[in-house]
Amino acid sequence: MDAPKTSDVVLVAGNSHPELANLIANRLGVKTGGCAVYHKQNRETMVQIGDSIRGKDIYIIQTGTKNVNNNIMELLIMAYACKTSSAKSVVGVIPYLPYSKQCKMRKRGCIVTKLLAQMLCKSGLTHVITMDLHQKEIQGFFDCPVDNLRASPFLLQYIQECIPDYRNSVIVARNPGSAKKATSYAERLRLGIAVIHGEQKESESDEVDGRYSPPTLPRSRTMDAGVGVPIHIAKEKPPINVVGDVGGRIAIMVDDMIDDVQSFVAAAEVLKERGAYKIYVMATHGLLSSDAPRLIEDSPIDEVVVTNTVPHELQKMQCHKIKTVDISILLSEAIRRIHNKESMSYLFKNVTLED
């Protein structure tokens, strides 16, 4: 595959993930453009583009990290600087889209992902390349084309090549919400599936056992709602339980991101109690916030496998169980195809696995 001509494509990288930007540039055979992104003493973000970008296709590589608000502001200013410098097109390569979990309406809240999408489009982005959005429907928030790439082929390849006796595995959904993703993995690997349901209870004394319930009243065949609208009953999760057999098997938990690892550790402890002899966690985005490396190190989890959409070199130094899968080849191929006006459907085809 021919690399794009360097005369009319420019790679620009923010401060969020320079290692990934260099990997993509090396695969494409181009250099990252002369763009300086720095902060003044009052913490304002400054962007200076050294070379002329008039009439060129600009690809801004910026992901979401722990310093998420600075990452977003850098991206907005870089996109606007390219737009006002008469760039032909400005494509945002955002491997992990920040605030993607806030894509649903909460009580007295707002859909922050929609706000971010509108800001990115207004700043000058004409196209967005991202990976494994928390919900696919997020693409509808953008007023420009969005390519939502998938990391599952890389993680599936890791399972096949790096997990001994993977045929004796079971794909585990950490909660019912991730059952769809787990089913997709299980069908491609021809494996079984298990789902973890419920949550750990703090104390038995806190449970409502009904001793203070009002006495029962004779019921009529016609329901009377009484005065006003009925009160909405609060949800209460049952005690944590595993639906499916994991005894004597390798348990592989899959999710789109791993940030707060306490729920993963609690799930791993339950899987260990149910007889799983090895536990793996696979995720696209490894944010690994707070004291995640220490919790993983002390947990029954044997390996945490994530891609390099988010930098996590410091966490890898603190925990030997964290492994990385490089996805720069997928992002560089997406940039090449978009620049050469080729079809992107090849990158979205179903993974075909050999039996």
From TrEMBL:
Ribose-phosphate pyrophosphokinase N-terminal domain residues: 10-124
Which InterPro entries does the entry link to?
Pribosyltran_N, PRTase-like, PRTase_dom, Rib-P_diPkinase
Residue numbers spanned by region Disordered: 200-219
Biological process (GO), any one: nucleotide biosynthetic process
Q: Could you name the domain of life of the organism this protein comes from?
A: Eukaryota
Q: Does the keyword RNA-binding apply?
A: no
Q: Which SUPFAM superfamilies match?
A: PRTase-like
The alphabetical list of record keywords is:
Nucleotide biosynthesis
Q: Family membership, please give it.
A: Belongs to the ribose-phosphate pyrophosphokinase family.
Task: Name it.
Answer: Ribose-phosphate pyrophosphokinase N-terminal domain-containing protein
